[in-house]
Amino acid sequence: MIPSIEAAKKLAKILDTSVGYLLGENEQADLFKDPAMLRRFQDIATLPEKEKECLLTTVDHFIKASKISMI
Question: What is the pLDDT of residues 2-17, one digit of tens each?
Fold first, then answer.
């Protein structure tokens, strides 16, 4: 099934990315071809706003800590 342009725009907004990114117009496009990652993104998108914000903040902190530990 091919999503409508409006669905693609909404998904891009939820994921804080661009429609171009979702369409594979960059080198990290394979991320959204991974079914397990896509399911996770879909699950996050369905969370209530407060829970989504908490989860994304936690992920952001984890990513920051991981980058610092690589230095």
Answer: 778 888 888 888 888 8
Task: Count Cα atoms within 13 angstroms, Cβ side, for 32.
Answer: 19
Question: Angle CA(28)–CA(34)–CA(35) in degrees, nearest 5?
Answer: 150
For 26-43, how does the pLDDT look when each residue is reduced to its tens digit (9 = 90+)? 666 566 677 888 888 889
Q: Where are the alpha helices (DSSP H) in the chain?
A: 5-14, 19-22, 35-45, 49-70
| Cα–Cα dist 49/61, whole Å | 18
CB atoms within 10 A of CB 67: 9
Query: What whole-number distance in Å separates Cα of residue 26 and Cα of residue 24?
Result: 5
**What is the domain partition of the chain in residue ranges?**
5-70
